[in-house]
Amino acid sequence: MKYNTFFENAVSRLHDERRYRVFADLERIAGRFPQTIWHSPQGPREIIVWCSNDYLGMGQHPKVIGAMVETATRMGTGAGGTRNISGTNHPLVELESELADLHGKDSALVFTSGYVSNETGISTIARLIPNCLILSDAFNHNSMIEGIRQSGCEKKIFRHSDLAHLEALLKEAGPERPKLVVFESIYSMDADIAPIGAICDLAERYGAMTYLDEVHAVGMYGPRGAGVAERDGVMDRVDVIEGTLGKAFGCFGGYIAANAAVCDAVRSYAPGFIFTTALPPAVCAAAAASIRHLKGSQWERARHQERVARTKAVLTAAGLPVMPSDTHIVPIAVGDPEKCKAASDLLLSEHGIYIQPINYPTVPKGTERLRVTPTPYHDEALIDALAGALVDVWEQLGLPLKRALAAE
Fold this sequence. Notes:
This protein has 16 helices and 16 strands.
């Protein structure tokens, strides 16, 4: 039997559906972000990255790099084992303490990625609640969906941020049945914000537990960078907060923060926590340094919001179809998978600008887009260059510009 045929056919289907993904070989330049070296087929070339999730550029911050280098020099590289088998290094303990303090919770638990913290956290929490009903927002991330699936619990999907639908499902479940409401604060593809306080109101009224994914918000919002729930003054009302160390904090890993009983139970029962090597000490020290800095510094958040506003204004004035957004994410509608990929390719090859195309299944068919993420380090010249490049690409591909439509 020719087993390779199965895999070749699977990849071929992705090509046919225009869903095959090509990875850009990039080399970030610390101290010069967002300038990046692209190792193209024709050789190395300096480009500008406009789609990084290192939203605040903390991956190049001297305090963060310094903490990583010093700790690696002092303690070595890997953790040396799982959390139970010698892997609970002291920088990891300190990191969990910083995270618990950040979110005003008793405890925090660090995982090897944000994906794993959702997949493992949700499945374990729900599985430990007898007869748990999970109520999940329709736009939840794949990691949350996988966590729900692996829990084996009954689930019901409520329409995206639809409070009336959520209330109907809560009411239908009845007051005696345990319920877990699972949702995000910022939905990264449409860049909208959940009504966290109103969801907490419903959860309290109908006796449900809440689980909030803040991966695109931690570091970015709130007086200490704890996320949208902190900004909105409702952080203490959310039972479990999940976040990542790999976006605004500029490092790697994921976590949950909750009361001591929840974290201890997950620590004791979650396979995705128990049977995997712990994060290395140097990574933990770097993440803790980033969190400590952003708890006290407002410059990154303020500068970032100003850059985002400037980018939205310039792109909109250029007639580009900027999708409405109350967040730091700037989606630009394309609506065609081939043209979306072609736009990304032209931006990179002709203008030295890297923006990854967002196609199905990440977003529904017909809603393909480019997802722009300004940082504090994208200056006026880079923003103006982005607008000019996008207009040129739009015209090359025959995509409509709003200013042209308005002129007619």
